[in-house]
Structures are given as structure tokens and as C-alpha cells.
Design goal:
The chain has helices spanning 10-25, 31-38, 42-55, 78-117, and strands spanning 58-64, 70-76. By secondary structure, it is mainly α. It has a domain at 10-92: Orthogonal Bundle (Arc Repressor Mutant, subunit A), CATH 1.10.10.
């Protein structure tokens, strides 16, 4: 995977892709909202956001969302948009392969179950 860290697991890469996709659609998501939307812990959301900031794939802009709180807007950088596209293509290919294998397994199980009907 070009430009992707080789040390990350598939699940970490998938989490980062989900964060990139969510922030691309709604840059003003808080990390808490992001964690709820993606079904991940707040700590994992924070870890992903920090990793993406460090890589330069997103940038954070501060703004006041009321008189007391400062919130962030997370914008994908051009490099982040490029990496999101690459990661999407990698995961799409992987999911298509998984789908094909699952379809073959379903066909095999269906055939075996119909063959076993003859023995009843």
C-alpha cells in the first residue's frame, strides 16, 4: 500500500478510512460524535484523528461553538483526499474478494444441503 504505514493492522487502516470518510462528509464532527457515528470508542476516535493529523491527511481549525467551548473543524488535506481514495480502492477490492469467496461458500453449502436431502 503506497504511502500507507505498513505497521498498521487492517482494522486500524479500516478505522482510519472510516474516520476520513466521516470527516469528509461532516468536517465539524466532534471526536465524541465521530465515535458514536462509527461505533468505536472515544479513545480510538482520538487515536485515529491524532494519527491522521500527524500524517498530514487532515488539518484542524479551531472555532468557538459557544461562549465557553472551543471546537474543531477537521478538513481533509489534498494528501488526505488522495489517501482516502487509495484506501477506498484497496478496501473495495478486498471486500469484493471476500464477497466472491462467500458466494462460492454459499453455493457449495446449498449444493451440499440439497444433496443431503436425498438421504432423508
Amino acid at each position: 500500500m503506497p504511502d500507507l504505514q505498513h505497521k498498521l493492522t487492517t482494522s486500524q487502516l479500516e478505522a482510519q478510512l472510516k474516520v476520513l470518510r466521516a470527516l469528509h462528509v461532516n468536517p465539524s464532527l466532534s471526536q465524541r460524535e465521530l465515535s458514536k457515528q462509527l461505533g468505536i470508542s472515544l479513545g480510538k476516535a482520538n487515536y485515529c484523528v491524532q494519527a491522521l493529523l500527524k500524517k498530514g491527511w487532515i488539518k484542524a481549525s479551531n472555532f468557538k461553538n459557544n461562549q465557553r467551548n472551543i471546537a474543531h473543524t477537521y478538513l481533509l488535506t489534498p494528501k488526505g483526499i488522495e489517501q482516502k481514495f487509495k484506501m477506498t480502492m484497496i478496501f473495495l477490492q478486498k471486500k469484493q474478494q471476500e464477497f466472491e469467496l462467500l458466494s462460492q461458500e454459499i453455493d457449495q453449502l446449498t449444493k451440499e444441503s440439497s444433496d443431503n436431502e436425498h438421504y432423508r
